[in-house]
Amino acid sequence: MRREDRTAAIEAGFLRPSAHAGAAEDAPKSAISQKLRDDLSRIAQGARQHAILRDPDLLIDLLAYQLSHALRWEKPFGLSTEDVPNWPSTEASGYQLDARLTDNPARDMVGKDHAKSFRAFRKKGAEHVKGELARFLAAHYRGGSKDMAAMLDKETQPNIREVWTPTAANFFSRVGGGYLDDLWRDLLDLAPEHPTATTFAKMKKGEKAERLEALFRGDGDLCSALAVTEEQAAKIAAWLPEA
User: Fold this and answer.
1) Measuring CA to CA, how many Å separate 156 from each of 19, 141, 143?
2) For residues 166 and 95, what is the distance between their CA atoms, to the nearest angstrom?
3) What is 115-175 written as a DSSP string?
4) Residues 103, 115: Cα–Cα separation, whole Å
5) Positive or negative, the Cα torsion across 152, 153, 154, 156?
6) 161 confidence band (pLDDT: 50, 70, 90)
7) Cα separation of 91 and 82, whole Å?
8) What is the dihedral of CA 190, 191, 193, 198, to 10 degrees?
9) Which region ranges are annotated with the description Disordered (predicted)?
10) CB-CB contact of 136 with 67 (8 Å)
11) Neighbours of 196 (CB within 10 A)
12) What CA–CA distance (Å, rounded) separates 57 from 213?
């Protein structure tokens, strides 16, 4: 609307006067186009990257801080993390990870002073920073390509039975009764007609699951009653389902 038309409209009562209207109309058009403004912003960002590259320790501290404090929106690095599930639906039944993977989750930083928090984080020292970086990188570890994962497994030697023991809740109640019968006989080297095998086969599925859980737990009375040998105990300790 032209200025004279706007003035007439205000005088006629059709429009309310605006305190900023005149200022906005009188402001000269910027000589900086949006495309040029974007380029200048990228140049400023490049200068920041150029400068911070001189301080690798600061970069490492900042990465550890971003990961451990779950900075997803106002994050220092243009890096995104994704959830790498490591907790089964049966939760802690027969399952225990290193406490660094389950305790002290990332902090809630909504509404907090990030600069003040980061300064306090760095004051805890290099060992604390390294520990935080290690545990959050481990929590996001996926393995990569098939050959990369195989190489890393060879380096780290993961052992599923180190963190997981089959229980009624996390495994035995979730497979069929016939599977449990076969497993019982296999672990104890029993022929199908052996009384220990036939007695087990007649049990209800819930009882079978509980009996196997006790066997894997190393229940002393049960192991004695079954005369479990050292070889059988070793087989039980190393056993894993085919999946």
Assistant:
1) 69, 12, 11
2) 8
3) HHHHHHHHHT-HHHHHHHHHHHHHHT----SHHHHHHHHHHH---HHHHB---TTTTGGGS
4) 25
5) positive
6) very high
7) 20
8) 30
9) 1-30
10) yes
11) 15
12) 49
Task: Say which DSSP state 150 is in.
Answer: H
- Looking from the CA of 123 toward its CB, the CA atoms found within 13 Å total 6
Residue linked to tokens 């911070």? 52
Confidence (pLDDT) at 223: 97
What is the rounded (10 degree) CA torsion for 121, 126, 131, 137?
Answer: 80
Above 50 in pLDDT, residue 14? Answer: no
Q: How far apart are the first and last CA of the chain?
A: 73
For residue 88, give the DSSP letter. -
How many residues appear in the chain? Answer: 243
Q: Which residue has the tokens 């590259």?
A: 53
Q: Cβ distance 141 to 84 under 8 Å?
A: yes
- Per-residue pLDDT reduced to its tens digit, 29-51: 888 889 989 998 999 988 988 98
Q: What type of residue sits at position 187? A: L
Find the mean pLDDT for residues 2-19. 51
- Name which of 45-59, 93-107, 219-233 the model is least confident about: 93-107
